[in-house]
Amino acid sequence: MRWAGVGAVVAALLFAPSAALADDVRGGQRAVIKTLELTQAWRVSKGAGITIAVLDSGVDPGHRDLAGSVRVGKDFTAGANPAGVAPRRLHGTYMASLIAGHGHGDKGRFGIIGVAPEADVLSVRVILEDEEPGFREFNSAERFEHVVAKGIRYAVDEGADVINMSISKELATREERAAIRYAISKGVVLVAAAGNDGERDLDGDFAPYSYPAAFPGVVSVGATDRRLRRATFSNWNSSVLVAAPGVDIMGAGPGDEYWVGRGTSQATALVSGVAALIKAKYPDISPPLLAQALTAGATDRPPGGYDTATGFGIVNAPRALAEAGRLAGHTETATGTQVQDPAMPVAGGQAGRIKVIVRDENRVTVYTAIAGAATFGALASLSVIFLLVRRVRRAHSSQDA
């Protein structure tokens, strides 16, 4: 067992504090805001009232761009690090800021603005950073084998509406599959990273599968580069549902720092933010229909409508919201009890109706709705945090909230 974040940080380049510093941070987000068309989406929804569980390495609740929006939940990695060692919380803080950062200072115009700036974050620690002293123990000890499954169930029971999983593991387990089924049965949307092993193809036909992204019912997210093409590191296989920007993504780090990195982690966080916008506007929309809204509203669609590189295309926030409005009145059609996977009965005797979407006209049929046993036994991607980082120190007090 080896869980890992699939985002990116490497070397730190320090910006000198200056009056222009915060503008540099927000300016670094310009491409993402434009690609997702967030300014238009924010006229409809900013995620108010929604809780996104960030299953990751922990979130710094004191970061000025997240202060007041983070509830620190359970640490399922407790005991892996030696006593007295504090978690680094780099990857998790980074992801949380992309989802729900609200900026700071005058009208929040400085720092990181997330996709759903009025949403709340539930931090659930289920992985360690590679650099933490307990990393090897965590990834080898049997007692930590089912931390993500436990984290999913915990997040659901704590009221999460969306669960972001910018993490990956190479093999699926029954416990994780059952936890995902439980979450979807409660109306919770799960979003996960497709993985960063895209340059390691198998038989020249596809990149490895990554879990939990490859489980049926989970929105699997690939990453695009600046030209909105599949980033070379992004896994390409039939689990990929949609894509989002994943290169040179500005985000927050612990201690009021800022980072720039790349990975399917970042793309996943952005899509989780869009899911939160939809849930805030249409709280009763079912997970399968929300996923359908993401796909139907996607832009830059590949020829034929789907491919294994970017799925149905790049997520677009206002278009997804519009599609969700069209679909929201039909939630009952995606949450019935008529179709059940006989190999994996659902707790309580309930099962979800399955909507089948053909994603690759040559050979692949994929289930985008719920309550099935995982059909993929392939290798998954692991990712070591590996890419460009910029660290920015606290700006002058005039820029602080």
From TrEMBL:
Keywords annotated in UniProt: Hydrolase, Membrane, Protease, Serine protease, Signal, Transmembrane, Transmembrane helix
PROSITE patterns: SUBTILASE, SUBTILASE_ASP
Peptidase S8/S53 domain residues: 47-313
GO MF annotation terms: serine-type endopeptidase activity
Protein name per UniProt: S8 family serine peptidase
Organism superkingdom: Bacteria
Signal peptide positions (record): 1-22
Gene3D superfamilies found in the cross-reference section: Peptidase S8/S53 domain
Membership in a protein family: Belongs to the peptidase S8 family.
